[in-house]
Amino acid sequence: MPILEDKQKEQLRGLFAGLDNEVNVVMFSREIECEHCRLTRDLLTEVSTLSDKIKLTVKNFVEDKEEVSKFKLDKIPATVIMGEKDYGIRYYGVPAGYEFTSLIEDIILVSRRDPGLPPEVLAELAKVDQPVHVQVMISPTCPYCPMAVRTAHKLAMANDNITADMVETTEFPHLVRKYDVQGVPHTVINEFYSFVGPLPELETAYEILRALGKPAPPVHVHAEEVSGAGAVHDHGHDHAHDHDHEHVHQHEHQAAPPRPFQEKPAKKAPENKAARPDKKKSKKK
Amino acid sequence: MDFPGFSLDMGSLKQARRPDPAVLYDLLILGGGPAAMTAAIYAARKMLKVAVITRDFGGQLLETSDVENWIGYQQINAKDLTSKFEEHVKSFDLPVAMGEAVARVEKEDEAFKVTTEQGKIYKAWTVLLATGKHHRSLGVPGEKELLGRGVAYCATCDAPFYKKKRVVIAGGGNSAFTTAFDLMKVEAAITMISFSKGWQADAELRKRIESYEKARLLDNHEIVRIEGKAKVEAVRAKDRKTGAEQTIACDGIFVEIGLISNTAMVKDLVALNPQGEVEVDCSCRTAVPGFFAAGDVTTVPYKQIVIAAGEGSKAALAAYDYLAAARKI
User: Fold this and answer.
1) For B4, which of A96, A220, A280 is closest by C-beta distance?
2) Where is the domain boundary, A114, A145, A180?
């Protein structure tokens, strides 16, 4: 059964015509395939036929133990997008729905061997000097999730210490329970540190630094004074609220948490290394 | 959940260069929703030196699942529509500061200075504010503490986590009922709570929920607080008529109680109405010469995608006229 529409294939051929270097897509399934494993394999097979630069290898999660441990995989379907070297880009579950675009972007960026991050982000990432495991929990119908996945994968590409997983939550309900995921995108860094909502590249890099206990500036320089487009500011107001749409309110700082930036920025931290006091963190055993 | 298929977002795959702080632009467009994107296309077609500063492309479109009133499409997925907009914008070689939010807009002599929350400064002869609106929060105890732990704002994103669970929806308008519809699809038990008396949603939407056996509707009730330790466990609601309070046990609460204008960055530049909106004339001009506004962030009535797009085009053309009259282009 064909997976992609003809029009999508045509668009992809157009995109892939610009691929520079070879991209290795390594997928792990097993002999008796789970439904999602088969779907992932069918999808990747179709994608790989659209360019001779894309090389698909299908491995057996049960038998190819050496490879499984080399890539440090713990569940399937698992997909690794790599060049000559492994950048730490992982997909657990089908890259379905909006995440299909994340997969395509990864192929393009890996082919360039360059995540295309601005210098200020690279400068922050250079401070990451120990292993970091980023898990981005997503649902395929969430329009904000690809921002989080694509950013995490770019950061993984830019620093060899970082491994970044997309985790499709409907396929791995035990991880939803383990990390207490009730909203996506939900990003877990090194098991114990988490945040909800997609963040821009620089702020995601800061989150990694914070997770490692390294200095990182407060999120928004002007967080105390303004509520920018889409930014969430927590001013701790406690006035009576009103549900009426027509309600006239004059509280300048009545900023609400919109989806994309559910994070709460710090009150001005006394010094750089202070973790954000109102930030959600979950300690896991 | 139905299998979502594979969605290819061509717009987001096209790279744009970033704006240069050393350049004095003709027009800086703030925002990434339909008004901003349409303005960008018009400005680019007028060959203006234009740049866009935005946290994302799509704006409030990202919070919708389907659009049924964009001319030419009886129904289109909101993300697909956004992707088409973005692809259109990026077909012009204009710089985009993606992931940047504006902290402050100031006028210095004739030109404008735009400072982002990351501390970058961009300059231009004219500025178009098209930053739209964002969700209002309830402002009750428990809300921010349990954010992402049962307090939710995006049903398209999070409804699957509430399959066959108990959910409260705060709000009584169309977005609250659309949220209820998403949760109905995952068989959640729904309690809708509206502050005002009666319901403001369209009859068609309301009927779908009212006929759902696991829905309960409470109007004229105020949510007092959200309870729970590690996650949402209950919502405390007060009858505004009798004052009687009740605890509604639930696993989550979706907040859909209207919107707030994203205008804090211009509050010292231009007067705002009580809703925080920027007053504009029929050419999207504000009281500050060279400063324009378009879309949901303005006083223009009926917040619709097609209206925002139309206003965006007007604003770009008005900025062009302004620049021409001031002999800046």
Assistant:
1) A96
2) A114
